Amino acid sequence: QVQLVESGGGLVQAGGSLRLSCAASGVAFKSYTMGWFRQAPGKEREFVAAVSDRAGFTRYVDSVKGRFAISRNNAENTVSLQMSSLKPEDTAVYFCAATLASLFADYVPQFDYWGQGTQVTVSS
């Protein structure tokens, strides 16, 4: 049984930082591209960042470039999202996801497994 469990969400002031983590089990972690998505109230779930399986290449949505950094630890089956210079518009539930597709996968249906999500709230 595949499980992705996120942690690290919370309430932070604008300009602050948070680090999200996702622990994977029941999956050949090294074979999967790992991604982070977010969903704000009343909006569709959107792609935030992804990291490729072994080489660790990364990709970001334009709105977080230079502020967020995704990384993975294949020895520990974890993927992290370091978020800095947070803005109120970053407020959302953040989801960890896994796909066997390439780094260029950024649509929800392309991802096979999902975590339950963790809330990030940025106050102004």
Detailed description of the structure:
With 124 residues, the chain is an all-beta fold. It contains no helices and 11 strands. Strands 2, 4, 5, 6, 9, 10 and 11 form a 7-stranded mixed β-sheet that branches. Strand 5 (46-51) and strand 6 form a beta hairpin. The radius of gyration is 13 Å and the shape is globular. The protein starts with a strand and ends with a strand. The mean pLDDT is 95.
Descriptive tags:
mainly beta, 4-stranded antiparallel sheet, 49% strand, globular, 7-stranded mixed sheet, 124 residues
Shape: globular
Distance between the termini: 40 Å
Main sheet overview: 7 strands, mixed
Order of helix and strand elements from N to C terminus: EEEEEEEEEEE
Instruction: Return residue spans where pLDDT drops below 50 for at least 5 consecutive residues.
Output: none
Helices, by number, come to 0
What portion of residues is helical? Answer: under 10%
Radius of gyration in whole Å, from Cα? 13 Å
Strand content: over 45%
Structural class: mainly beta
Number of E-state strands? 11
Give the overall average pLDDT. Answer: 95
Concise description?
With 124 residues, the chain is mainly β. The protein has strands at residues 3-7, 10-13, 18-25, 33-39, 46-51, 58-60, 68-73, 78-83, 92-99, 113-114, 118-123.
List the helices and strands and how they pair.
Elements: E1 3-7, E2 10-13, E3 18-25, E4 33-39, E5 46-51, E6 58-60, E7 68-73, E8 78-83, E9 92-99, E10 113-114, E11 118-123
Parallel strand pairs: 2-11
Antiparallel strand pairs: 1-3, 3-8, 4-5, 4-9, 5-6, 7-8, 9-10, 9-11
